[in-house]
Amino acid sequence: MSPFLDVKDLKIHFPTDDGLVRSVDGVTFGLERGKTLGIVGESGSGKSVTSLGILGLHKGRGANISGEIWLDGEELVGASQEHVRGLRGKKMAMIFQDPLSAMHPFYTVGDQIVEAYRIHNKVTKAVARKHAIDMLGRVGIPEPGRRVDSYPHEFSGGMRQRAMIAMALSCDPELLIADEPTTALDVTVQAQILDLMRDLQREFDSALIIITHDLGVVAELSDDILVMYGGKCIEYGSADDIFYRPEHPYTWGLLGSMPRLDREPTERLLPIKGSPPSLINVPPGCAFHPRCPYTERTGDKARTEAPALAETEGGHLVRCHMSPAERRDLWENEIKPVLETP
Amino acid sequence: MTEPQTQPATQTAPARQGEPLLSVRDLEKHFPVTKGLFQRQVGAVKAVDGISFDVYKGETLGLVGESGCGKSTTGRLVTRLLEPTGGQVMFEGQDITHMSQGRLRPLRRDMQMIFQDPYSSLNPRHTVGAIVGAPFRIQGVQTENGVKKAVQDLLELVGLNPEHYNRYPHEFSGGQRQRIGIARTLALKPKLIIADEPVSALDVSIQAQVVNLLEDLQNELDLTYVVIAHDLSVVRHISDRVAVMYLGKIVEIAERKSLYATPMHPYTNALLSAVPVPDPRGRAGRERIRLTGDVPSPLNPPPACRFHTRCWKAQEICKKVEPPLAELASGHRVACHFPENAPGAPEAPATGKDEPVNA
User: Fold this and answer.
1) Which candidate, A174, A206, A232, B336, has a CA 20 to 30 Å from the CA of A338?
2) Domain carrying residue A138
3) Per the domain annotation, does A153 fall within a domain?
4) What average pLDDT does range A57-72 have in this prediction?
5) Structural domains of chain A, count
6) Site from B161, B203, B227, B232 to mutate, A interface, most A CB atoms within 10 angstroms
7) Is residue A112 part of a domain?
8) How confident is the model at residue B113 (pLDDT cuts 50, 70, 90)?
9) CA dihedral defined by A105, A110, A113, A116, rounded to 10 degrees?
C-alpha cells in the first residue's frame, strides 16, 4: 500500500541562458494523512520548488519535470494542467510565506475565500459567505462577521496569515503545503500560528508539508524531516533520527550553526565553512564536498562520484560516502559531545 | 529555572568602571501623523518613548523586541540618523542629541553602523574597493600605504580575499556582502558599532560565520557593540547585557545570564517561551505562555503599563500607574508591578510606593 502522497525521484530543471538550473534533482518521500513532513534547507536548496512542483505551479516557467508524484493513487506529473487545477484548492492547498503579496489587495478577505470555495462547490454566494465567516472564526479571527468584509491591508501580519490559512482550508484539502508560514511573523505570533496549524491538522486529518529554514519550527511540528542541499535530499528520517541520530555532515553543520535557548550558551558557534552552491554549477561528486570537513576520509570519491541516498536503518536515509558505522562513530564521539556541552 | 539570582552578576561582566561610552537618557522619538492640506498634526507615532540605558566600553548590549517596538529607531537615534524629539544622547561625555551634522561628522568615525540587508546597503555601481575605501575619502583620513592597501587589509580582516578589490557587490553571496559591510564599518576603527539585525537576512550556516566574525573582531579590536535583533537565541549568544523593548519602552534590562535564567517581566517570559525549541522529544511536555492578540499600535498605545492588554497578571494598577524601571536585583531592572522570579516578595507591587488596588 503506497502512502497518501508518494513522490519518487522528482526532478525539476529550469533551462536558462546561463545553463540548466537543477532546482530539484532527485527527491523521494512519502507522506500519510494526519502526518507532517518538514522540509529543511537553506535558500536555493530547492525546497520551495519541490512544493510548487507537487502543486503543478512550476509549469509556466518552462521547466522540465520528471519523476512521479502520486496523490491518493493519482499520478500528477503526467496529468493535464486542467486536471491539476481542479485538484488545487480542493484536494491540495498552499499557505504562502507572505500573506500580503499572496492575497489580492483589491478584494476583501471574505470575497477571496468565497471565490475559492465557489470554484469547487456549487453553492450560492450567501452560503459561501457563511462558510467564509465560519472558517475565519475557526482560525481565531475575532468578530469574523465583521472582519470578513475587511481588506488584507486592514489585517495585522498574524491575522493575515490566519486568513490565508482559513482560505487554504476552506475546501477541506487533504494535502496542505505551508512554505515558510511563520518566517515573516514575530515570535509570539509565530507560536500562535504554529499552535493553530497543529490543532487544525488534527481536526481536518490532512497531510501537512512544512517548508522552513528554522530547525526549531520543524521540531515543533514534524513527524518526518527531509533535509535538502543543492537540490537533493541528503538526509530523510523521523524527527528523532534527524535531531538525535543525524548522520549527514551537513545536518551536523546546521545543528552546530544554531544558537539554542534550551542549552547553556557555547563559547563559539560551529558554522559550516563556505556558502551554499549555485544550482547552475553544483559541485561534481557530492554537492557538499567543498564545505564538508570529512572529505578526506573518502579520498577522491567525494569529488568524482555522487553518493546515493542509502538506508542506514528503519527508514533513515542518508546521502554520504562514509559508511554508516563511520558516521555514527563521528556523531557519538566528535559532534555530539561538542554540541551538547553543558 | 534556577532560583532568583541575588548576588551581583557583575563578576562575569566586562569591566564596568568609569564613564559609559554611550549614555542615553529619556530618549524619545515621536513621528507626527498629519492630515489634510495644511498637514495638521493629528497624532504621533510614539516609536521610542522615553528610554534610558548605558553602554560601557568593550561590552555588547543586545536590544530585542518584536517588530514595531522601536529597537531600530533607537539605533538610528543614537547614531543621529534620526533627530530625537526628546531626551539626551551622550557619547564619550559629549552631548550629541542636537549637535549639527557638521560638528557631528568627526564623531562619525567613532560611531558606525552595520545594516540588516547586505543587498540594499551596498551601492551596486561601486567596486568593493570604492565601498570599503569610502570612509577614508569622506573623512579625509590619510593611510600609511595608500587607501588600496588599507582596504585590502580590511578585506583580509573580515575573511574576504584581498584580490577581490575590483569586484562588484553582485559577484558576492549574501554572507560575503555582509562581510563587505562590516569591513566598511571597521575602516575608521570606530569605538562603537550599532548593528541593526546584522544576521537576520542570512542563511543559518552563514549566520553562524558572521556571528563568530563579530565576536572575533570585538576581541581583536576592542569594540563596543549595540546589537539590535529580534532573534532571542542570537542575542543571548553575543550579548553581555540585554534590553527587552515593548512598544517604545524598555521593559527589562539585565546581564545576559540573569535575564535568560530569571526573566522577571511577564513579556520577557512570554517571548522566551514562544521561541521554538529544536528538540522534538520535549515538545509534548513543554509549558508555553501563549500571548493572545497582536502588539497594539504605537499610534495609540495602552495607558500606564503598555503590556497590560496582553498580560495574564494585569490588575487595576497596571491600567493606571506606569511601573518604573526599578532595579530588583543587582544590574537587573524591570518595569513591572508584578514581576516574576523577583527576589523578596514577588507578589507585592515592585514600586513600593503604590498600594495594590484590589481588582
Assistant:
1) A232
2) 102-172
3) yes
4) 84
5) 2
6) B203
7) yes
8) very high
9) -80
Chain A contacts of B232, Cβ < 8 Å?
187, 261
Q: Classify residue A197: in a domain, yes or no.
A: no
| Cell (9 digits) for B206 | 552563514
| All cell numbers assigned to A17 | 541562458
Rounded Cα–Cα distance for residues B242 and A119 (Å): 52
C-alpha cell at A161: 496569515
Q: Is the pLDDT of residue A214 over 50?
A: yes
Q: Across chain A, what does the average pLDDT equal?
A: 89
Q: Tell the residue number behind the cell numbers 580582516, with chain if given.
A: B157
Contacts of B281 in chain A (CB under 8 A): 240, 243-244
Which of residues A209 and A155 earns the better pLDDT score?
A: A209
Residue B3, pLDDT score: 43
> Does the beta carbon of A243 lie under 8 angstroms from any beta carbon of chain B?
yes
A140 vs A330, higher pLDDT: A330
Residue B354 has a pLDDT of 40
**Residue B182 contacts residue B195 (beta carbons within 8 Å):** no
Q: Which of A184-188, B38-42, B131-135 has the highest mean pLDDT?
A: B131-135
B279 neighbourhood in chain A, CB within 8 Å: 219, 243, 262
| pLDDT score for A158 | 84
Residue type, A191: A
Using DSSP's 3-state secondary structure scheme, residue A262 falls into coil
Mean pLDDT of A192-203: 88
The reply to whether residue B274 touches residue A191, judged by beta carbons under 8 angstroms, is: yes
pLDDT reported for residue B298 = 83
CA distances from A199 to A139, B145, B288 (A): 10, 65, 15
The answer to whether residue B349 scores a pLDDT higher than 60 is no
Q: Is A164 a member of any domain?
A: yes
Q: Does A271 touch chain B (CB under 8 A)?
A: yes
C-alpha cell at A252: 551536523
Distance CA B151, CA B184 (A): 9
Q: Assign 3-class secondary structure to chain B.
A: CCCCCCCCCHHHCCCCCCCCCEEEEEEEEEEEEEECCCCEEEEEEEEEEEEEEEECCCCEEEEECCCCCCHHHHHHHHCCCCCCCEEEEEECCEECCCCCHHHHHHHHCCEEEECCCCCCCCCCCCCHHHHHHHHHHHHCCCCCCHHHHHHHHHHHHCCCCHHHHHCCHHHCCHHHHHHHHHHHHHCCCCCEEEEECCCCCCCHHHHHHHHHHHHHHHHHHCCEEEEEECCHHHHHHHCCEEEEEECCEEEEEEEHHHHHHCCCCHHHHHHHHHCCCCCHHHHCCCCCCCCCCCCCCCCCCCCCCCCCCCCCCCCHHHHHCCCCCEEEECCEEECCCCCCCCCCCCCCCCCCCCCCCCC
Which residue ranges form the domains of chain B, and what is each CATH number? 20-277+286-332 (3.40.50.300)
User: Of B177, B178, B180, B204, which to mutate for an interface test with A (greatest number of A Cβ within 10 Å)?
Assistant: B204
